Design the sequence.
């Protein structure tokens, strides 16, 4: 008989933001239970966080190291099946590496890690281990993102000629890091975030979404990368010209000083026959603009959507699904894949659909190329 | 030490729609665990549904009767704390009554029950029992609904003069019940739905939302109630003129034959100084239109929102929260209230905010008055 | 050889609003020239207004009476071809009657006149004269209104079951008439406006638009008519249940105390197969919501629109056409019809499309029935 | 006594698009009358076009040369006051030059002319002549564009840090020029359009709008310029990184192969304190997004708008003004300025607001720099 998949969390203690998002996303479908965690490197904080989450004391650990070493020794009937890593960027690599080495599947927040060397090492580890590794580029989990991807795959738009992807936020319009706000603080710190600020934090989402939906590969890019808030140590704004292998042109821009913008990831894709438009902040609509007939709006939960779209939808039309539901689609698919593996079954390919280690490496390469281009007088940098 | 609140479910077996919604809503915040269920009156179906949900066999029951009688005898350390009733209307009353009589708290889907007599009996039972009774008028759970309510309460709009509330759906535009589609089937059957179709199913949501946000009471109404699809046995369209105790005027219309509409609940409220507008399908925006300055759009997760709005928000601005999150706000508040009671603590009033037995009775009265008006030649029916 | 059609204006002097709208609408297409006017009953004001408009002194008159009597004697090569009446409601009848009696075509602002008796008398006059009489229910002039009408006519929606038409404005939310604001002043004065306020001023637009687009006739109605601003002498808010001859149901509401609303006329029409939605404030989009395929948005200037839509469009897609262009469509069609008549030619039926005396009479009947219903305890009033 | 200003048109004969736009824009406010024209270089076509426009035969000319030479000899009481040049790009220079040399004011369609040399020569001519020269960058005529400009000028947004301006169209997604469609044909022909296609036709609108609203100057740019439709001889897509003198960053993209897009010019401007957003296709709304309070939507015709906004608005709020009204604002201002000059009066500075020869030269320089950058391997090209 099947059972829930068991999750151990690394990071996400009191005061953290993304850890709770991961927990809600994992819980939503009743396929995963949180069984243990090392929620903070401060033991007391980890303990209190575990208490908040109603975990038994003995499954709350003071470090990921301890957690992995003890969990591996537990009865397989209670032992965690995978770890979820929700720490800042500079603390992804060590726990991910160790989890893989001990034979645990991994779900990891994005970007993959702190630098490119780590990324390649993780890729090798994953490939050699045969374990599942998922990266939470959560925006690919939206039903209408699946629909866009399927429509392009099936050729409805013809060859793709142009992509405009953008991710404006405004929350770093002031020097918020100076106030010790936790989210701002590590994201603008080169010791924690890596070589990029906004381009790593959100630029990689834009890059991932673009390649996921279009199936195209960026071949070269030209970037203008800036820190516009005085004193900021990492970029808070980036504007990038893109060229794709198939000859298509593109623009990618991401900003955290776009004053007043919330989380306005959007993408427009133009083919020979039609254009597509999707906005993360109104995620249940997909606009399809045809050359010679009325514009269409595809909507989550309505008739005539792709199989994948339907498989990532929980509610009837008009019952808005949001950020957490899209995020939960990644966890749900991970759970189905782990479960199937444990039971020696096949998973329907429609559920084998979540960002993986290759997406992670690609994102890290993107960060490096964008920063390189930003510092170069040469127009085009190859990817 | 606190623990998760334990839920037993009545109804919601394989093939049901709203049961799964309740389960996801209950699971989202990690405050509630599903521990048992009587998912169907067919024992085998109940058993299979329990298996889908990874419940132990011994906590899956063949009837609510059996569930309540056995659970009451279990160790308080594992016994369910409340039942969640997610059956069709005609099967709300019996399990709710029995649960209350055995001392279990109750969460019940809307409308409250099958007829007005049952409603009054339940009200007495709840009042005498001292138990918690929540009705899932889930739309009141949205952050921007809270914001609208608080703005009106604080007098920002001045006296309210006019309300336009509407709930158009199109899914019953054809005689779907003839195809034995399960949702259509019981909702159009007077033996299961009660005296009203659309007006009971969704009209009551519109009524509840109106009185919740405005704090006004409908004093009289004039209704035109119709079944527009040939052969349909209950109304699928209703248009109602409203008068409120304070002299305000209003319109309420609900339809399930508004072809092409998804779930387009919306409300507009006009005061002396400004108008408010909220749409369930874009729930994170609240439009406030002033007489003499620029229109404002309040958005979930941004600055300067009411305490209640913030307390019902999980994510930063621009990370869309949807139907399930609003629904989950009801379950989260219920869990907090049960927990506080068990621990002998006070709950922050901001969490004592969910529709209760009075809302349920009010909804049933609304149904009766609307149907009475629909059949009358008299213009106004008092409420 | 053809020539421009010559217009004489009655009303619309300095400080007036709608007169200038008529002049801009008439001028837009270069088919009509303003040749004379009696812009005010105050001779000096009329003279100054004429000067503003660069008219020769001898064609600026102190009264409509004078204008009609003198113009009729002028050389047909310079004499006006029609009068445009842009005075308040109580001053429509006399000039319209006189113009018709002297053989001039008439364009008249809405509603048709001050009371129902006048309406019937004008109807007889028009019918007996053989002259052209146009009423500026300008909202029917929008391209997407034509498109909606044609789609319904051609059966794309199936039988119509429900209509929701609304016209909320907020500009009379305060007792603006007390400040002597000119527009507010006469509209709230029973001596000038007639028996209705908002229902005459804008309710009739809603009624006209509904019957124009759907081709349905209202058979009975039930109205709640109120003056919500203390001291106001005519209604500023009206809510009406509608029944149509074909069995369809409807709602019409119009308000001038919907605080913060601008000029939000909109209509939704639901048939067996699809629903239509049009908003005057975003007039170039027509939403068509199908039962079983993606929602469509038809847009002014794009491909695949009806012949009539195209004939009332001036610009390529994405070049917004607005209120004045729709208004100008009425004048342009009037000019084409007068020109054809003068030249003894046929006009393409696509241009014989403007509201006429029958629309005017219908509007006056609507006003009377709505006010009657508002004062009655009987539920339904026949139309 | 004042009189209407008299216009002579060059180009805009039967089958032309923009000529009729200019005529409607000029006619709207009743300040300008069309008195003569050289509508085509084919004499017969010019004659027929003049007939369509009800012009006397003797004022319809076979060439601009003839028109200018004859008109200058006419009685000043009937002679044209200015010429309006609405020909393709390669035919702007000659008539503009000649008109200026003969002492006529000029209104000219954009871009200014065929090449940069012509631009500089025209600039000198205008400066030496003391005549009025207006260029129809019509999008600056919208009331909400004025409002955006005034808000930035007054410092409400703080220093500007980022601009995103875009102009996607889809009408050249196919090789429309191969069908001999007139508009496509000359715009894609280097002999008629100049060195740029889309970047000249619409990219210059984007550049002009940006500098007009922000008051910033582009200091350097980096462009990717492409013809994506096989066989096309001029660019149909361009993506440009911008840097401004004040240190702000920007993106400008324009395309005519953005399949399904109509005429989607839009601009977003981010300052230290707020962001602005305006879309040409919904021109009456200006979104202002604040860092720490609710988003605002400013609307044409409502209260609290800048003096300039009000001076360029004709209608009350909610009566949509569109493309022609914005275009007409340029003609209206031109007429007011010519009139004042003739009468020796001062014009209110609020009306001395239309794109002029400097905007024209700036646009030509932009075209040259963008094309230069598109062909260069150097990253930044100075402007």
Sequence:
């Amino acid at each position: 008989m099947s059972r829930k998949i068991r999750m151990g969390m690394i990071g996400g203690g009191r005061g953290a933001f993304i850890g709770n998002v991961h927990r809600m996303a994992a819980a939503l479908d009743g396929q995963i239970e949180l069984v243990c965690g090392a929620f903070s490197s401060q033991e007391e904080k980890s303990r209190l966080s575990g208490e908040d989450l109603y975990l038994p004391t003995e499954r709350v650990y003071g470090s990921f190291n301890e957690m992995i070493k003890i969990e591996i020794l537990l009865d397989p009937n209670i032992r965690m099946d995978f770890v979820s890593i929700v720490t800042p960027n500079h603390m992804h690599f060590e726990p991910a590496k160790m989890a893989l080495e001990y034979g645990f599947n991994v779900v990891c927040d994005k970007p993959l890690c702190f630098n490119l060397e780590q990324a390649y090492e993780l890729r090798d580890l994953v490939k050699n281990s045969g374990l599942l590794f998922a990266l939470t580029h959560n925006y690919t989990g939206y039903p209408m993102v699946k629909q866009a991807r399927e429509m392009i795959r099936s050729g409805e738009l013809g060859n793709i000629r142009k992509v405009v992807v953008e991710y404006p936020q405004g929350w770093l319009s002031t020097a918020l890091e100076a106030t010790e706000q936790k989210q701002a603080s590590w994201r603008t710190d080169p010791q924690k975030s890596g070589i990029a600020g906004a381009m790593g934090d959100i630029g990689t989402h834009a890059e991932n979404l673009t390649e996921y939906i279009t199936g195209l590969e960026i071949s070269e890019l030209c970037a203008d990368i800036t820190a516009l808030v005085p004193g900021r140590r990492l970029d808070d704004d980036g504007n990038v010209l893109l060229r794709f292998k198939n000859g298509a042109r593109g623009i990618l821009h991401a900003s955290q000083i776009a004053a007043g913008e919330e989380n306005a990831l959007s993408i427009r894709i133009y083919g020979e026959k039609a254009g597509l438009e999707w906005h993360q902040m109104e995620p249940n609509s997909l606009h399809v603009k045809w050359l010679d007939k009325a514009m269409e709006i595809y909507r989550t939960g309505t008739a005539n959507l792709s199989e994948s779209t339907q498989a990532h939808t929980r509610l009837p039309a008009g019952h808005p699904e949001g950020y957490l539901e899209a995020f939960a689609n990644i966890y749900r698919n991970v759970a189905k894949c782990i479960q199937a593996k444990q039971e020696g079954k096949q998973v329907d390919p429609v559920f084998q659909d979540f960002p993986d280690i290759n997406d992670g490496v690609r994102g890290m390469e993107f960060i490096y190329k964008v920063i390189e281009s930003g510092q170069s007088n040469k127009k085009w940098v190859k990817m």
